[in-house]
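Dear colleagues,

As part of the handover before I leave the project, I'm documenting each prediction I ran so the next person doesn't have to rerun anything. This entry is a single chain, and its sequence is reproduced below.
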Amino acid sequence: SQAEYQEAINEYITMLKIAPERHEHIITIGQLYRYYLDDNSNALKYYNKYLDLYPEDVETNYLIGKLYHRDNNKEKARESYDKVLILDPDNLNAFLSLIELDHEGVEQIKKTYEAFNICKDARDSVNVYERINSELKQYGKLSEMMGNWEIMRKLESTYKTFMESGLNPVFMAR
């Protein structure tokens, strides 16, 4: 329940007062606000506190961009994603997020294919295909989607275990 998450946040705040050097708790508090209490304002407050200490933290800058993106503050989201790409030029998530901000529809699909240039491994490629397929489905481009799905399936077999690729979809189907 929300009360339990708020209690957990209060405990982390108390731990920070006792051991202020435990900076990782700042991020945890932000994540609790964001993911469990849907409180972007307080999440942003704690992410920014963390960035005051570690301004070059790529993941926190990206999380801030996602918060702004969710709140439809495109300018602030772009600033955060751009900072991520300055710190980590091959950051796939920031690259894809900028494409989502700047492009829509078929143009977004075409631009997303460019992300393969910075993919580091099969998981990255599958991530890109999943995003592309999500858009292809919306626009009824099913044959292209099925072709991508076939490529994804082959890529996934290079890193997923039998349980992940074979049994889980059967038992996890809704």
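The chain has a mean pLDDT of 92. The two ends are 24 Å apart (CA to CA).

All the best with the project,
I.
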